Amino acid sequence: MTAFEAAAIPGQPPPADSVAPRDSSADAPTSVARLNGTIRDFVARWSTVWVEGEITSWNVRAGNVFARMKDLRSDAQISIRVWSSVRARLPNDLAIGDHVVAAVKADYFVKGGDFSFIVSAMRHVGLGDQLERLEKLRAQLRQEGLFDPARKKSIPFLPHCIGLITGERSDAEKDVLRNAELRWPQVRFRTAYAAVQGDRSVPEVLAALARLDADPDVDVIIIARGGGDPQTLLGFSDERLVRAVAAAATPVVSAIGHENDHPLLDDVADLRASTPTDAAKRVVPDVGEQRALIAQLRARATGRLTQRVSHDIARLEQLRSRPVLRSPEPIIEGRAQEVWLLASRGRDTVARQLDAAARTTAELRASLRALSPAATLARGYGIVHLDDGRIVRDAADAPAGTPLTVTVDRGSLRARSEGEISEAG
Known about the structure:
Number of helices: 13
Shape: elongated
Largest sheet: 5 strands, mixed, barrel
CATH architecture of the largest domain: 3-Layer(aba) Sandwich
């Protein structure tokens, strides 16, 4: 029975020099040594486990190793210790950034109150295993459409400001800046330094990417590293980084500087450059080449314009050399008589049509006058109307007292009927 278990049993008296941690109080506190011993005895019951992670520190002191391991997908870390006797059995090339699996057993150091894990075995994770997991992730991201060429953004022809993510004072930085300035001396860079390998690589690159992507002056972002073995390039296949690049609003260029076993960043980036130098050449146009191209286009345009003008001048001279254009007077004179005849014929035709129309109009006017009651009225006749507008044709229609309107040649008269006049009267 451990001290921790003994302390947990109700009624079990604690040792004379202290009390059990569970039974401690302000009046009867336990001692630090007692507490640490209880923790040590409890932790000692844990069995050995195999754990996978990345070595983030590796310090050798007096033959023993004091190190730390980090989870591959999060920031969780543990402290590990490798005694010299065990270290002699481990691979001699273990270093920071290595992906390893280790057999560890929990240990609690009573004197310092430190919790760590004692390593009994450690080995590299096979590169083949890592690449297999990488290919599975690649297939998943491809299925999601993150590698689709249709979603990739075009690189601006002449970026005003280029964002650069790289290691501080690295060869990759020097290559990009030198080659870019050689091609276009006025090019501007906004550099964000980040670790390009190890446990700090992914979070620092992510932070730099977010900062440059949010900068409205940055037109394109280059992520550059001077190459390396596949093991040290695994950070550029991290799923968090790949998805962040896919979601970036600014075009991203991958310039990791290797050819084989390319990381997932190459597939998701809007442009993949084989080296940092290649990235500079593909992002920044060459001012000399552009000037030569402009001169070539200008010469071509001048030649085409000269050729067109010469062709049109020759065509114009050809037209002017024709007889009809060289001496147009005979044609005009020959047509003048024809025009005079046509005009005379037109005048005669119009005159005849006007005469015929005048006769027709006179005939119609005479017919209208003959049919019009106005001529009858002019001879002294009148038209008698009732107030409702009816014309009186029968004396019976206007009995005595009926108001009447009499229309004569010049105006109308009001009258009243005195009744019908008999024939005798």
